[in-house]
Amino acid sequence: MESIKLVVLDMAGTTVADDGLVERAFAEAAAETLGTAAYEEQLAYVRATMGESKISVFRHLSGGDEALARRANAAFEAAYARLVDVGHCAPLPGAREVIERLRGEGRTVALTTGFARVTQDAILAALGWDDGLVDLALCPADAGGRGRPYPDMALTALLRTHAADGVGGIAVAGDTSYDMLSGRRAGAPVVAGVLTGAHGAEALRAAGATVVLDSVAQLPDAIAAYEAGP
Q1: Could you write out the DSSP letters of every residue in 109-139?
Q2: What percent of the chain has pLDDT over 70?
Q3: Per-domain residue ranges for the chain?
Q4: pTM of the entire structure?
Q5: Model confidence pLDDT, tens digit, residues 30-43
Q6: Residue 25's closest CA among 115, 92, 113?
Q7: Structural class in CATH, domain 6-18+89-228
Q8: To the nearest 10°, the Cα dihedral for 71, 76, 82, 86?
């Protein structure tokens, strides 16, 4: 059994408090670009696909109209950035301490998101996490354009950092079913679902979580337990 050398952490809902920001930003984007006639149906889809690349979500909601999808995604990112700018952004309790502990244990830490790079950077700056806290921060565009549930961001983190000898040295943590699917498809032996975000324990387990935690604060101990074996 390979020890865990690379830990891939989701942002909103896992290490960063969401507090409804995604839904608020989506409401603004829908009103501006998609219209509100089917808003409740659209919102249900957004909730079900939390964790997916936002441009992919808007491609679905626009019925394949690429220009409309890009306008809607841009409106969403702008709305989310405005919410971050006025202070609606906070770390989940213990998140920074967890990252520091993981790195102190000799593990490499990557943060991943379904947001665009500009939004990810705004969140990191607002939290003061752009100070070298993590080894790597990735958005879907950094990994070929496909976000979750594809494994691309976790595998890109492995390729860029060379932190582990193979996928057996990766742990993935997130709050959505798509995070779990992404981790399992990447071959990570530790795929931790956390209950601080979009989806509950049943959905996380159904999507492949190897362990479900109350919060990311429990992740270091869960990794240690895995490494200790049965």
Answers
A1: EEEE-SS-HHHHHHHHHHHT--SS-SSEEE-
A2: 100
A3: 6-18+89-228, 21-85
A4: 0.88
A5: 888 888 788 888 88
A6: 115
A7: alpha beta
A8: 180
